[in-house]
Here is the input.
Amino acid sequence: MPNPSAPRQNGKQLDPAVRKTNFEEVAQIFTKEEALAEANRCLHCQNARCQANCPVGVQIPAFIALVKDGKVGEALAKIMETSLLPAICGRVCPQEKHCEGNCVLKEKFGSVNIGMLERYTADTARKEGLLKAPVCAKPTGKKVVCIGSGPSSIAAAAELARAGHDVTVLEALHAFGGVLRYGIPSFRLPREVIDNEIATVKSMGVKFKTDVLVGASEKVADLLNEFDAVYIGSGAGLPTMLGIPGESSVGVYSANEFLTRVNLMQAYKFPQTDTPIRIGKHVVVLGGGNSAMDAARCAMRLGPDTVTVAYRRSAAEMPARAAEVLHAQEEGVQFDYLITPKEVLHDENGRVTGLKCTRNELGEPDAKGRRRPVEIPNSEFVLPADTIIVAIGQRPNPIIAKTTPELKTTERGVLALDEQGKTTLPGVYAGGDIIRGGATVLLAMKDGIEAARRINTYLNEGK
Amino acid sequence: MQENTILVKEPLNSAVVKFVIYKPLIARSAKAGQFVILRGREGGERVPVTLVDWDSEKGTITVIIQAIGKSTAMFNSLKQGEQFLNVAGPLGTPVEIKNYGTVAVVGGGVGIAEVYPIARALKEAGNRVIAVLGARTQELLILENEMTELCDKTVCATDDGSHGMKGMVTDAIQALHDGGEKINAGFIIGPIPMMKFTARLMDKLGITPYASLNPIMLDGTGMCGCCRVTVEGKVRFACVEGPMFPARTIDFDELIRRTSEYKPLEKESLENFQKDHVCKCGLH
Here is the structure.
């Protein structure tokens, strides 16, 4: 019998004092006992709300039932019927907003730890050699290209390969994974997990190429000569900066740059690797999203005296996942709320010496229902800082739109789609941050999967 | 033929090497003023390097690399027949090629090689092209013959007077102006102080200056925002909006400060490399 009132298993984490000195994964995989105990809490609801709220439609009650029966390989196969990147989803999906946020046990006993169960299933099945790449349909003879190798493109590529198409993924950088590789740190998503999931997609026959920047190396129009359909999942682009005086001082990083140095270029291993990074004694991270948490926690691991996240509203409005905030706090990251940065102060060599700020109070809610920060008069003060990381968002990558005049964009610079999810160019589909601006890995994957289905329909209708 | 293979390696002087690399994808779409990102090894940096030439029929691109840090020293130790690990491009916005009238193309040191394709494109667009080439000393003055052959007029300046006039490129431009040359636009590539003073002089002489900027880059594809520069008081991203910008209002001093950020670490990295490196390039 299921035992929903048993305590929710949260798994173990590396000791904060140890983990802030390394880049190893913080959350440890469930033991078998933990997994069975947690699986036994699930009520296997009919019309399960968790499943209905999963962006990629994972059959949650069914896979958990298989875990409970000790059939990890079958459980993974069940997950992979709808989602081909389970080891990634199990780690970086904001489950509290999707499945776990809708679990019927949430209020009374605490939601089932679906994220950790998914990860347990994916990691254990792989380790025990029970992972089977999905069977691909008979070759259709159609060729599809996916631009970018981030979560959206990989999800699309896997679905398209499963449908029997000949799929090629083009990546601009030297390594695959997009934001999973350059944005998300290894202590949340180990590099071998990305490598493994991509290897699975490769084993389905998908071809992967590095160093191809579509819009520069090849135009979308060139690709349409070679391929029957195109999926654009080229992701985020240039960072949004604050536009305050002194922002170009030496020691001011965008979160994109800081995270790319650390995660993609492995600057924390310098001089074994060749890309350097400089960290001061007092790091200030501006922003309150997941990138801000990633940047703050990476910064902490580079050994400064203090890392402070400065956010313009209060803790309640912060968009970052609660678990990430907690992990950051455990590692010694400080949080300072209701702050608006006004000016980056610097010495005569242009190096950052501090951040002039004002204090805010919360005013009326904005269009999204979050209370607006309102500056308190005469509240100016200086935060000590010699490294500042600006993590307030980014714009979509501009290169494809700029070099493909047939593709329409909105005033926000994202690609415009019609109701069928098509761009304004026939045969060209898009998803992820290039249509959303800035979203989560899971929404990007959802876009990729849905676009793959539309591409199937488009190709099957014959062109 | 394997992509990224070095077909020709030709040392131009003690620290500067010319590479012809097999890379058809880039060769067929490159334009004057664009660059590529090179990587030499796993764990290696992504280094932006200006395209000097390309041949769409042979599928080759040409770059000229000056060994100044570990990565460039390592590139220059690669042998003919070996491969770069990664070659990505062509990146950046091409220079706007049109008939400006009379133009000066100004190259300092390795910048001479980098400004060469721009000179060629401007010449093809019907401009009268004057090349102004500068270097510390004669040995470092590269591509003089190619420039002389291409351009309507070529003047050289060396700091020590070992070749051409003694002085800076600014002295040469002033001399051209004093001699009655009416120049409409200038395209400058070289060390940042040289670009700063050349742009300033051109502006004073009524010549519209453009300069190709070399901020630190990471991805080079419009993602990280590391390469931001200030032009007309606005933040611009050199990897996608540049690298060539109207130079009258570029904040060159900021660029100097931002490009100096990693100098001590780069020095450490180079010293480590030289200590361990069994030289096969003949440059040390």
Notes: The two ends of chain A are 54 Å apart (CA to CA). The mean pLDDT of chain A is 94.
